[in-house]
Amino acid sequence: MNQTSLRDEDADHTLIMAAFGRSLDAADPFVVGFNEAILPMAISDPTLPDNPIIHVNAAFERLTGYARDEVVGRNCRFLQGPETYPEDVSRLRDAIGRSERIEIDLLNHRKDGTPFWNRLLVAPVFDRGRHLRYYVASQHDVTLERETLALLEAEQRELEASAAETQVRLADSAARLQFALKAGRLGAWTFHPASQHLDASDGCKIVFGYDPGAAFGYPEFLETIHPEDRARVVEAIQETIATGCDYDIEYRIVTPTAEVRWVAIRGELLTRADGTALSMTGFSTDITERKRTEEHRALLAGELTHRVKNTLATVSAIVNQTLRDAASMSEARDTIGARIGSLAVAHDLLLRDEVEGATIADIVTGVMAPFDDGGGRLFSVEGPHVRLEPRVTLALSMALHELATNAAKYGALHVAGGHVTISWSVGIGEGGRRLAFMWEETGGPVVTTPTRTGFGSRMIERVLAQHMRGTARIEYRDTGVVFTIDAPL
Ligand SMILES: Cc1cc2nc3c(=O)[nH]c(=O)nc-3n(C[C@H](O)[C@H](O)[C@H](O)COP(=O)(O)O)c2cc1C
User: Considering the chain, what percentage of its residues have pLDDT values greater than 70?
Assistant: First the structure.
């Protein structure tokens, strides 16, 4: 049944409703209160077919745009439209059907078609005989509230989405930072001077030789610093806190397993708005490898300088002594050339073995190579693996060169059938391990002790003995020259 037919068919009802309007006492304060209330209100009569409106107030007219005459006699559903949720209408119908009070927000339309959110309250009114007599309703426009709420909800959803996105980005950059710290073997730390509290990342603990799960606070940090570097480190921390200068320091630590490491620490001071120190934060890294390389390089540079000086002194001695002992300039030229050549061989050996020196076998093979005919008849070489210090390597090389030169000129290597046995052994003697070295010539011409002691013999006996801190002796036996060394290893 539509509203038009209702009005046409139920002329009686219209009359009843008009009568209700007239029955209202304009002087009754409740009537005045109802009519003049700010809140829109309506009264319906459920005893009439389709529960029509029998009275509305002025606020209702202002809200909906309908005049009282246009609505009286109609069911209030005319305010609904296609966008009104059917579930809301069902709830209303059910409550009204059960004569129950209901409060609900639903979408309505004004006469001009504009929508608004209606916070509707419908309540039944019973007469003295407990029979349902009227329904009263209030309509409150909550469009602004709903829209604001919807806006706030949308904003909140947006905020939540962006917070979630920020969270993801943060987690992502934290993961990338972790990766960078790990790849660079860096540890991160933050120190709070006021509370003396130190926060160290797992990487930082590893740098300091602690397990990632272990407690590593300021006391442990101080404890780990090498005693000789501790004062310097603490001073640098205090200076950064006092002046705000960057904290950039390299020092030694002793890990819980007593391993000495070098670490590099960089950090900066974070201050409060008033300029006072808040915290220090930065990175730590293990630079032990780099320090060892630097030390090794410095050692090599020192060794090289030392060797160059020694070589120049040796060359100078070779030239002076050879010129003094030589019978002629041409003999001097040959001898100087050969002696400097043997020096070069010794240097080759040293270069190959860096600062560690060479083995006796290497020295013998290197120096004897120019004197050997390759047939294996001239030399017998026998002895264990013994590595000598660089300066001893040099001295032994020169000594062997002199022995071989003399043997080639006057001794076993001068005649066919001559032989040189070079042998050495290591035994335990006075003060620990000792080296016994022997050069023994056989099958050569009868040997006599030379009248003059030239550079070669002096070098052999004195210099070698001094370098080896032992004794070196040349004997001119009838059978041939015998040279022996007895020195600690
Ligand atoms: C006194 C009274 C006032 C009402 N005011 C409104 C109103 O402002 N807007 C609305 O959509 N429905 C209002 N209704 C509800 C409808 O009139 C109707 O009861 C609802 O649409 C459910 O019934 P139906 O399914 O027959 O339409 C009011 C009902 C009563 C009894």
Answer: 91
